[in-house]
Amino acid sequence: MQIAQAVFGVFHHFELARELEKRGHLQRVYSTWPWRRLQREGIAQDKVATFPWLHTAQYLAGRAPVDLRWLTKPIDQQIAPTFDHWQLRQFRSQLSRKQPLPDALISISGASHHSGIWLQEHGGRFICDRGSSHHRYQMEIVSEEFARWKVPGEPVDIRNVVREEEIYRVADAITVPSSFAARSFIEMGVPAEKVHRIPYGVRLERFQSGPIQSEGEFNVLFAGQVGIRKGVPYLLQAFKNLPFKKKTLRIVGAVQPEIKNLLGSFQTENVEFLGSLPQDELIGLMQRSHLLVLPSIEEGLALVQAQALACGCPILCSTNTGGEDLITDGVEGYVVPVRDVQAMTERMERLAGDRELWLKMREAALLRVQHLGGWSSYGDQWETLLRTLTGKQ
Questions:
Q1: 56 to each of 61, 188, 254, how far by Cα in Å?
Q2: Is 200 left (phi over 0), alpha (psi -120 to 50) or beta?
Q3: CA–CA distance, 172 with 385 (Å, rounded to integer)
Q4: CA distance 156 to 115
Q5: Which residue, 369, 361, 360, is CA-closest to 325?
Q6: How far is CA 308 from CA 5, 291, 364, in A?
Q7: What backbone torsions phi and psi does residue 69 show, to the nearest 5 degrees?
Q8: Cβ proximity of 148 and 231 under 8 Å
Q9: Which of 362, 369, 376 is nearest to 305 (CA)?
Q10: Three-state DSSP state, 53
Q11: Minimal CA–CA distance to 173: which of 126, 217, 243, 209?
Q12: Which H or E run contains 39?
């Protein structure tokens, strides 16, 4: 059984590629990042093919000291279809050279369309791997959030939604990382038997617990893109309402353009915006924090949740983060409804004021993470699905 993958950049697909390669199933990974960036991922260069021109240009323009959205938006619309047609050319070239085609293509959502259909026509299987909820579900709930906060603009381009829905229709299977994401597809009319939940793994060898935190302070951590979709405004409101004197909220991640002006309207006393940090520094913060809070409005399965548990840091998450698949509410942390500021404040206050409860949750978090699948388990689940879909070993 030989498998190809297609991904914008890296995401979790190179974790999957390493697992497939260990099992002798990886034919090639197609990516929009240049080899110079991908070589650190540990996959042999002859198994990586890159089409970096548009994605690299968009990346560099997005980090320019001036506003180049007039340039990045048109490029953004071209990345997916151009990458897709480039993959199609690679497959056709393999066929013309009488090289075996992959038995299946696993494509991160949006990265393949015509190439997937072509492979189906030549006996292969096409799998759409979606890291978040159904694209239309995502568009609707995040657009509603933009309207709530009176943030101008459309968070999701409808053209991308329509294209992805066509991909969902033609794909042989759709994979998602959480029960929340799976429910969103079923809610939007996708047959349940077409949707497969394969949770992400966590590198337990990297994320480990540190010394127990001292009493008398309460350190809260947020890690992720600082934006509307991640529910950051609700976290700031809940933290402000937390009646605990020695408290600190550390926010790690790049601040998204749509929220920059909005942040000025919130009280940010005892709040530290740290920007993006290297993973080693994030691990240290997780080890020194009493609670990771992730109040996302929409998300597939945030990796930082399992990472925090492995560091002995309980989590407080919304129902739309996939956290329900990781923890039991009230044991290793808390799961609260989206947008529920009062519930978030109450849970934080409960932990901040009860040292014994926090220690109990910390221990439960460390125990729980030992039962979560690592990336090897992720690879096992993928191998089982692929054998079922392809009928091959």
A1: 9, 33, 18
A2: beta
A3: 11
A4: 24
A5: 369
A6: 29, 8, 12
A7: -60, -25
A8: no
A9: 369
A10: helix
A11: 126
A12: none
- Give CA separation, 136 vs 151, 155, 156, in Å: 19, 12, 9
Q: 54: Cβ–Cβ under 8 A, 6 or more apart, which residues? A: 32, 75, 78, 79, 82, 83
Q: How many residues would you count in the chain?
A: 393
Q: Where are the alpha helices (DSSP H) in the chain?
A: 13-22, 35-38, 53-62, 69-96, 114-121, 135-148, 158-170, 179-187, 232-241, 257-263, 279-288, 303-310, 341-352, 355-369, 375-390
| Cα 279 from Cα 120, distance rounded (Å) | 39
Is the torsion defined by CA of 352, 349, 149, 303 positive or negative? Answer: positive
- Hey, what are 232's tokens? 């950051």
What is the residue-wise DSSP string for 113-129?
A: SHHHHHHHHTT-EEEEE
Q: Per-residue pLDDT tens, the chain, 393 aa: give them.
A: 999 999 999 999 999 999 999 999 999 999 999 999 999 999 999 999 999 998 887 877 777 676 766 666 777 888 999 999 999 999 999 999 999 999 999 999 999 999 999 999 999 999 999 999 999 999 999 999 999 999 887 788 899 999 999 999 999 999 999 999 999 999 999 999 999 999 998 777 778 888 877 778 999 999 999 999 999 999 999 999 999 989 999 999 999 888 988 998 998 899 999 999 999 999 999 999 999 999 999 999 988 999 999 999 999 999 999 999 999 999 999 999 999 999 999 999 999 999 999 999 999 999 998 888 788 999 999 999 999 999 988
Burial (CB count <10 Å: 0-12, 13-18, 19+), residue 117: middle
Rg of the chain in Å (alpha carbons): 21
CB atoms within 10 A of CB 332: 25
Cα three-residue angle 338-251-313, rounded to 5 degrees:
75
The 291-294 sheet, strands edge to edge: 271-275, 247-252, 218-223, 291-294, 315-318, 333-336
